[in-house]
Amino acid sequence: MSTPLSHIRVLELSRILAGPWAGQMLADLGAEVIKVEKPIAGDDTRHWGPPYLTSQQDANPTNSAYFLSANRGKQSITVDIRQKEGQAIIHQLVKSCDVLIENFKVGGLQKYQLDFASLSAINPKLIYCSITGFGQNGPYAQRAGYDFLLQGMGGLMSVTGEPDHLPGGGPQKVGVALTDILTGMYATTAIQGAIIEREKSGLGQHIDLALLDVQVACLANQSMNYLVGQETPKRLGNAHPNIVPYQSFESADGHIILTIGNDSQFADFCQVANCSELIHNPLYATNQARVRNREVVVAHLANIIKAKTSDFWLQALEQKGVPCGPINDIAQVFDNPQIQHRKMQNTLTHPKNGQVPMVANPINYSRTPIAYNQAPPNLGEHTDNVLAEVLGYDSNLITQLRQSKTI
Q1: pLDDT at 56
Q2: Which of 43, 125, 195, 332 has its CA 20 to 30 A from that of 169?
């Protein structure tokens, strides 16, 4: 079947997570993605383990679970861009590519003539996406930026974790590299927007994406709470700054999450909890009142919820249509019948290791389904094929490049 981006070729000169996540998204949408890696070492995340996907012959495994999470659907070629011959390979590939993704430090590719100015002179239609910690300009532009650092600098950790006065209080990062992933998603959107614009102008352009900018943009309601209310948001643990009750509660045998989004749902909860008198109590009647009286409301509801088991609340509230749920660990997530029905886990055939498990892309098109046709590649798995089929190199030239350690 046709896929949305089957007419697009992407050259990925990125590693770690933000750039590879964007490349994987484009590959899922059908683009041909050629990932350029360092000879011998490859993408840094190939070695970020254990765990690894290994075969008995692997003394130095290069397929970590981390690498596998962000690199399906791609072809891997190894090129030493420090060598003139390696730069020439990239220059030739760019002629037939629509998109280039890179996450080198600002100016880091200019000395190799692989910067936007150099490559757009070769291919004026090239869409060149640069991902850095702080952007291409500004006082921090030359700094290196990693997800954890940007979660802190971008304000996310100031609103994540328990309040300082509670046990375990203090700033806390999110459990996955969320800033990287969000940047990869923004990159995917920006690239597709540039592809659409190119249909009108016939020209490519430079996309400048910074992890810090993305993190600030994704503060969402918390940033607007500050800009509108002029009060700095604080950490609330699992509670919501604008909705009550919208948090986790301890039950008789565990915990549940209660996410009441309006007054009608609160009234339904009160009926299930046998506390209907609260519906007309001015402290509880409206969300605005519940937010203003958060401590009183939460303490009262906590005592009610703790009196019965999680199963009681989940079943009774679900029957009443009150949004609630359990707190699953990741094993429970993949055992969940809804996740299984939605086929969020699948497998791909790996050249060394047979079947490799994959987490599915959550996009479901009605006519042009996501493409799952290439497991995360072994390091340099496609070097010879790409050089021969895309650039027309013969076997002798490929052998010479390998002997000179260019590839």
Answers
A1: 55
A2: 332
